[in-house]
Every structure is written in C-alpha cells, then in structure tokens.
Amino acid sequence: MKKVYTDVAVIGAGSAGLVAFRTAKKWTKNVVLIEGGPYGTTCARVGCMPSKLLIAAAEAAHAIEQANDFGIRVGEVNIDGVAVMDRVRSERDRFVGFVVDGVESIPESQRIRGFAKFLSDHVLQVDDHTTVYAKRVVIATGSTPTHPPILNGLGDRLVINDDIFDWTDLPQSVAVFGPGVIGIELGQALSRLGVEVLVFGRGGPLGPLTDPKVAAAANESLGREFYLDTDANVSRVTHIDDAIQIEYEGLDGQQDTVDVDYVIAATGRSPNVKGLSLENTSLPLDEQGVPVFDPATMRIGDSHAFIAGDIDSDRPILHEASDEGHIAGENAARFPLVTPQRRSSPLGIVFSDPQMAMVGDRFADLDSENIVIGEVSFKDQGRSRVMLKNDGLLRVYASERSGRFLGAEMFGPRAEHMGHLLAWAHQSGKTVAQMLDMPYYHPVIEEGLRTALRDADQKLRQRVTEAA
C-alpha cells in the first residue's frame, strides 16, 4: 500500500474540487487531488454546457417557426435529430476535453486516481492502493441524480440528464418527471425539437420560483407549449414492450393513459456521501449524513475538514461551487487561520424561454408584512413586443423600512441579463431610489425593470405618507 503525506487532500475533481485544489496550492505546494470517476466536471459533461447546446438548437427551430409572425415566409421546419445530437455530443466532448486537459496538466504526483474513504479524521484510503495522511481535507464529491420509487423497474427506458446527451437521435416522445430547472429546460427544448413532451410534478413548484404570481405566469406560458402539470396525480408507470405506459389524472380531472418512448427523471439530486465512510470520523453530520458546515468559511464544525460544491446542497450552481471551492481551499491551506468570506448575492437562472431569474432573497423567505412589491408584466413592454418576446412577469421586493432592494423573481425575456443587473444591485446594497437613479436606455427590456422599481417606489412613498 502506497503512503502519501500531504497538507491538504481534496476529494473530488469537479468544479468545486478543482478550484479548491488550485487555491490551496497558492498557500502550500503539498496538495493532492483525489478522483475516482471520469474527469470533466458535471457542468461540462452532463450539465450546463450540453444542456445549453440542446437549448440552442431548440431556439433555432423556434425562431424559424416564429418567422411568419414577422411577415417572413419560410417553409416547413425539418429537424434532423441525428444531426442535432451529433453537434451536442461533439461540442460537449470539446468542452470536456478542455477540462480534462487542465486536470491532466496537474503533476501526476499530485493526482490520485480512485475512490477515497475515511479510515479516521486524518487518514484516507484510496481504493486498495494508497493511504493518504492529510492534515486537512476538502470534501467536494458532488451529487447524483435520484428518482422516486414509482419510476423503479423501467430499465433502460428511464434516463437522467446524464444519459440524454449520449443519444444519437431524438425520440418521438418523453415524459419528464420533475418540473425543476433541469426538467423545464430539457422538456421545453425537446418539445421545440419536435418531441412530444409531458411534464409531471408534485406539490406545485415550478423551476426555482416561489412567488405564486410569477410561477402562475410561467405555468400558463409554458403550458401552451407542452403538457405541464406541476401537481400531477400519476397512478401507474409501467414498462410495456418498447414503451413506457403512464396512467394519470389529466388537467381536466379525467383519467388518461399515454405511451412514451422514455421517462426522464429530473426529480432532484442526492449528495455523494455514501462510500466516504464519514462514520469513521468525528465530523458532525446532519440527518442525511452530510457534514454540517459554516457557509462563510466552508469549515465542517470546528474540525480540520472543509466542504464545497453540490455535496453540501446549499447553492448547487457552478459559480457558487467555484466560490465555495475558493473559500474551502484557502481556509484549508491556511489552517488554523480560518477566515469568513463574504458570499456573493444569490443568483439563479433557468434557460427556458422566457427565462427565469432569482436574485437575492426568495419571496418565500420574506416577511410579507414588512416589504413592498413592485411588478411589471412584459405583455405590453415596448422592446419585448418589438421582438415578439412579450410574455412574463417581474416582481421586485424592497424593505418597507429602508427602501433597500431585497430580491426579485422573474419569468421574462432575457432574464439572464436582467438577473445580473439585479444581483449587482443587491450585492451593492442599493435602495430602490438609487436603482432608479441609474441610466436606462430606450428602447430596451430593462425599461421594464424601471417600471417595476417605480411601482415599488410609489408604494414605499405611500407607506411613508400613511405612517405620517
């Protein structure tokens, strides 16, 4: 058994782990990176990048279909599923290749291939070939897709987003279980590429939205494109021959049955803690067996260990994973000097069409009695109508007492850009009045934001008048 002694051992070479490793190396050269799975990161291999490639193809098809509304006559759209998926796989492999090249540029002496488990607080065993004695550890093992028991027994007809990007052609029909970020993005993209799509959810949530008015606008809009039931009553899912048969209660309250080629499980992810043997450590764990940590330092309890990325289930988004990796890597390398670091304002984007954006505090987490809400519909917003993107709703939240911008939820055109502006304002601690003092060009979608801010400002002034 080979023995390795190191200042910092990073478990996991995903987005968070790579950043943690590179950050730690700025403070100590004695760092090792342990990875048992394929190099390439979830984002590049099965997440952010391949999904956006599929969405880009869907947007191209949709733009052609919408051309007639501008008075531009085009012929029938012919979607070549084989060519679509060939480009998705080819470009996906290109992105993955860049990441793999970066990992393999790390000296072999600092890379250990295999799955790590804890023998004790400071001792790791990697497969059956290496024992690592680490003064500090960063756990960045990511997460794995999960599915509910009703989907058991579907064999190779049950797929997750990891599988979709290896398809060589598009299917005729799919049922998506889970109208979260992944389910909505993939469901709409496949629908626009000619696949019959049904999306089933439980409990009513849609994407990351918690504001009922914004969620209702999104539900109504997306439901015009494909079957969408965010609180479905599915009684049976069965593998029959070369299809999956689903029995469910339709939106009209009637029982219905449909056969689809595949079921896509987009029902959440589980932290990768199994196999780490955390029970052999003194690390504090929650009821799911996930280490309890401080999000400002990424330190697990008062231990020598740190955590970063999807495994902590805190903010499972790439830029957040990178931020966490930086914090964990620096604090692990400089231990016992552990420094709290300011986290960036929460920002989440869903690449549906229209897009969704979440900034700052969620509606569900705010005290409705101490806030004011400004809103704007994009149905009659000037630039949105010009582009035939006039759909959606933006709601901004402000503190009644200070007028400070607290957050926003949005379903609307080009929300990815609006979301960034709002996140910058939130992180800067801007008030609604200060945001209204910023320049707004004409005609741009951001004028809609100004309308929502003016609505909030008027309500703030009214509250002041009523209190006087």
Please explain how this structure is put together.
By secondary structure, the protein is α/β, with parallel strands linked by helices. The protein has three domains: 2-145 and 270-334, FAD/NAD(P)-binding domain, CATH 3.50.50.60; 149-267, FAD/NAD(P)-binding domain, CATH 3.50.50.60; 347-467, FAD/NAD-linked reductase, C-terminal dimerisation domain (Enolase-like, domain 1), CATH 3.30.390. Helix content is 31%, strand content 26%. The protein is built from twelve helices and 24 strands. Strands 1, 2, 3, 4, 5, 6 and 19 form a seven-stranded mixed beta sheet that branches. Strands 8-15-9-10-11 form a five-stranded parallel beta sheet. It has a five-stranded antiparallel beta sheet with strand order 20-21-24-23-22, sandwiched between helices. Helix 3 (48-66) packs antiparallel against helix 4 and helix 3 crosses helix 6. The protein starts with a strand and ends with a helix.
